[in-house]
Structures are given as C-alpha cells and as structure tokens.
Design brief:
The protein has two domains: 186 residues, Ribonuclease Z/Hydroxyacylglutathione hydrolase-like (Metallo-beta-lactamase, Chain A), CATH 3.60.15.10; 130 residues, Rossmann fold, CATH 3.40.50. The chain contains nine helices and 19 strands. A hairpin with a 2-residue loop joins strand 7 and strand 8. By secondary structure, the protein is an alpha/beta fold. This is Putative mRNA 3-end processing factor. GO terms for molecular function: RNA endonuclease activity. InterPro entries: MBL, RibonucZ/Hydroxyglut_hydro, Xnuc_lig_assoc. It comes from Pricia antarctica.
C-alpha cells in the first residue's frame, strides 16, 4: 500500500519523505510552522521554518530559537520534497503549507479565514489533491456578519458606555484578535488602553501594520484615567484583581463563540460581538470547493460532523486527531506577568 505524503503521528503531521513535521505538538528536529498561536508553534524544536513575518512573533513567544524565514510562494526543497507557504488569512503571517512530491500535492491550512481583515495577508486558494482543513466552526449555525458591520457595533457600544462614564473592557486573544480590534477602534471616541500581554505583542507587530496609539496600563494607572475609554485585554484577565480595579466597567468579548448566548452567560460577559479569525460554515465549504481537492482531511473543531456532511455531498472526507484548537492567550509566558494593577494600587 502506498504511503501517504503526510501522516498523522503522535508528534504531529509528518512528511517521512522529507523527515519534517508540520506544526508538531511534541519536540522534533525540523518543523514547518503555519502561524504563531501557541497550539501550532510550540517550544522545543531544533529548527523552525516559517514565514519571515512570523519569525519575530514566534521568537517573542518562544525565546532564542533556530528559525528560518520564507517568503510567500517561495519554493524550498527538503530531500526532493517541495514546500511553499501561502497566505491563510487567519492572523498576521499565518500560512497554509503546500507539500509536493512526485506529482502529488497536499495543502495543510493550519487555521484560516476567507474574509480579508485588512491586517493579515488575504487567504489564497491553493489547488491540491488532498486538503487538510480545520473545522473550528464547522456547523451551519456559524455564519459571520461582515466585519465592517461588527466594528460599527463595537464602536457604538464604546460610545454608549462613555456616555455613562464607564470603562469599556474588550477581550480578545493577545495575538491576532487584539490587533484586529485595535486596527478598527474609533480613536475619535477616546483613548485605547492595553493589558501588558496585548501591548507587548502589538509592539512586535507595529513594524508590519499601522496601528493606532495605545497606552499600557501599569501599576501607576488610575482608574479615573480609564473612565470613558476602552481597554483591550486577553480573556485570561476576566475576573482577575486587575480588572476589578476598573469599576465601573462594562465587558465584551469578540469571538465566533459569541454566536451562542450560552457562551456569553458562561463567561459572564456583558456583551458579545461575533468576530472570528476562522472560517464560518460557508467559508469552509467554499474553500474546499475552490481547491479542487479529491480528498479532504478534517481536523480540530466540529470535524466529525463536518466530515460526515462532506461525505453526504459526495466528497472523499475523513477526520484525523490533532492537538490543535486551544489558542489560549497566545502571548508569551513573560507577558502574563507584565505590569498591571495589583491589589491596592488603583485609585
């Protein structure tokens, strides 16, 4: 039986012909990395290969690593296997990984979205024989509103909170979502304050994107300074002593999971904005069709439901287990201890 070009192993997605792994979750000698989120770029590999814009991101997160940067569409060979990176549109510098050997082409998407967010390089369709797709939001219930409308609602929410002299606390992952929010917040309303994890990651990305000015919250920040303004914070800050010092405040989360009211209740969030850095149901289906792929492999998310639907539509589709899907707060460990309010320091 012919060995598949890519195999799902206990360490990650493995190309035996090149002896290289794609987004491995256990330490390996050589890893090609799709993007900077913690579930896809892990510490401990001997050599990392990624898009050159992702080099400062993963270096910030992981520390002193041996990493090589590549351009979009740049073909590089490892043991006669051809690899190239193509825009995934998920976050800044996120890539799909194209693998070609003996006339066979596979594409591993990592995480991806088809809506152009204005800060990430837009998603690019890559033709292939086998397409490995995430299924984070692989249910028909997930259907995204255009981001222009979502940001109009976010800025209106901020303005309404300001009229009531309250601080607006907006949660988003420190890598990706936070910068997307930052790019489109209306600074005519007020000032943008940031949690240390978001500030530090944004500083890494400022050479790549023209972001509005932000002000880091430190132990010297008075809560009176925050009133009427907006604070960008990672989800991990919710319920912490840091946020309790901002009273009176109103919270909101920007996530695809805000589609469900139950998710907002469980997270004790006052307001939910449906904004995702992943494909919705239609985006997944349209992407798969556009690749012309003969085989579809579904990973993290609603993979079983989504692959069953694909089979019902006549596709050759199956699922594979991975350790992706927990983006967590994708800042570095040192960001978790960035200067913030401590007990008794906010006035």
């Amino acid at each position: 039986m012919k060995k598949p070009l890519l195999e799902f192993t206990g360490k990650g997605i493995y190309c035996s012909a090149a002896d290289v792994y794609l987004d491995p979750w256990k330490p390996v000698d050589k890893a090609i990395i799709s993007h900077g989120h913690a579930d896809h770029s892990r510490w401990g590999h001997k050599h990392y290969i990624t898009h050159h814009r992702n080099v400062p991101i993963i270096s910030h997160r992981l520390g002193d690593i041996n990493v090589t940067g590549k351009e979009w569409d740049e073909t590089f060979a490892i043991n006669n296997v051809k690899f190239s990176l193509h825009p995934a549109g998920h976050i800044i510098a996120s890539s799909q990984i194209r693998v070609e050997h003996k006339g066979e082409v596979w594409v591993f998407t990592g995480d991806y979205k088809t809506e152009n967010d204005g800060i990430s390089t837009p998603y690019e369709v890559v033709k292939c024989h086998t397409f490995i797709t995430e299924c984070t939001f692989g249910l028909p219930a997930f259907k995204w509103t255009p981001q222009k409308e979502v940001f109009k609602d976010i800025n209106q929410w901020w303005a309404e909170n300001q009229a009531e002299n309250k601080t607006s606390v907006l949660f988003g992952y420190s890598l990706g979502k936070a910068q997307r929010l930052l790019k489109y917040l209306d600074t005519d309303i007020g000032k943008i304050y940031t949690h240390g994890a978001i500030e530090n990651m944004t500083e890494v990305l400022r050479p790549l994107v023209d972001f509005p000015k932000t002000t880091l919250i430190t132990k010297d920040t008075k809560k009176e300074e925050l009133l009427g303004n907006v604070v960008l914070a990672p989800p991990s800050a919710h319920g912490s002593p840091w946020i309790r010092k901002m009273v009176p405040y109103v919270t909101a989360s920007a996530s695809g999971w805000m589609t469900f009211r139950g998710a907002r209740r469980r997270r004790a969030i006052d307001k939910g904005f449906v904004l995702s850095d992943h494909c919705d149901w239609d985006g997944l289906l349209e992407s798969i069709k556009a690749t012309g792929a003969e085989k579809i492999i579904c990973t993290h998310g609603y993979s079983d439901i989504f692959s069953r639907y694909l089979r019902e539509q006549g596709h050759d589709a199956r699922t594979e287990e991975t350790q992706y899907g927990e983006e967590e707060d994708a800042g570095s460990k040192k960001d978790e201890f960035a200067p913030v309010f401590s007990e008794g320091e906010a006035k």
